[in-house]
Amino acid sequence: MYLKKNKRCSDVALSIGNSSRSTNLYSKLAPGDILLTQTYGFFYALWRKLSCTMYDHSAVVLENNETLNIVYPVAKKLPASHFFRSDKSPMALRPVWRNEKQRMEFLNSMQQFEGTHYNLFRGVFNISNMMIYYRLGLKIPLKVPEITSKKWVCTDAILMYLQKIMPEFSPIDTLDLDLFRFGFTSPNDFLRIAYYMPDILKKVE
């Protein structure tokens, strides 16, 4: 497998990403789950390969089996079934909510992103930066986005709001995440959190 050819690709995120996926995952989804998926196409497959990333998109499961997706040009809702077509290899991670109020606050925050413009510059820069780092060892850190930002990429928005709403996410500052390495959140960061801190984010089995 190509990941073994590059020592920088050695990552606990890959152990979760390569692990067996839940059978009948679609029927187990719950509002608030984070859905990680692979986008079909040569470009996305090449990006995942060069950046040592298992997934290239993250979505939040809403009520009625819908999902919130921050994509170009604007964020939109899609049925969750969309990610179970073709070979998108979906995986779901579930925040360990302290209570229902906390979960609803997160869902309401995510739904408010509908219609928000995608931060194309940040998205393209993120892809390029990860490929350069994992192939050449060079990195160009970005500033971590402000919670008041007007444009977003999917991964940043999800993790920023989990941190804002769930105090339990404060200890992720001790982890070796791309958020702190590059200044932006990668799909792998969710897998790393689930690996090291399953008490706040766990894989849906």
Could you explain how this protein is built, in words?
The protein is of the alpha+beta class. It has one domain: endopeptidase fold (from Nostoc punctiforme). Helix content is 36%, strand content 12%. The chain is built from eight helices and six strands, in the order H-H-E-H-E-E-E-E-H-H-H-H-H-E. Strands 4-3-2-1-5-6 form a six-stranded antiparallel β-sheet, with helices on one face. Helix 4 runs antiparallel to helix 6 (154-165). The longest helix has 17 residues, at 120-136. The protein is globular. The protein starts with 11 loop residues before the first helix and ends with a strand.
Counted by DSSP, the helix tally is 8
Give the helix level as a range of percent: 25-40%
CATH topology call: endopeptidase fold (from Nostoc punctiforme)
Question: What Rg do the Cα atoms give?
Answer: 16 Å
Structural class: alpha+beta
Distance between the termini: 25 Å
Main pleated sheet: 6 strands, antiparallel
Helix-strand string: HHEHEEEEHHHHHE
Strand order of the largest sheet: 4-3-2-1-5-6
Average pLDDT confidence is 90
Report a brief summary of the structure.
The chain has 205 residues and is an alpha+beta fold. The protein is built from 8 helices and 6 strands, in the order H-H-E-H-E-E-E-E-H-H-H-H-H-E.
